[in-house]
Amino acid sequence: MKAYIVGVGMTKFEKPETRDRQYWDMAREAGGAALADAGIAYDQVEQVPVGYCHQAST
Questions:
Q1: Which range of residues forms the domain containing residue 25?
Q2: Which pLDDT tens digit goes with each residue over 35-44?
Q3: Got the DSSP string for the chain?
């Protein structure tokens, strides 16, 4: 099996639910940026690896 990374996207590092932004809003932003970076359409994507980094403050 071969895998290709053709585009990347991310959001600003900030706590979810700030500025009325939920996880799915941030995922949509990062996904849209990755598609734009790759220059491809959503229906051309077969798989998407996703990760996030979040630590609540104490």
A1: 1-58
A2: 999 999 999 9
A3: ------------S--TTSTT--HHHHHHHHHHHHHHHHT--GGG--------------
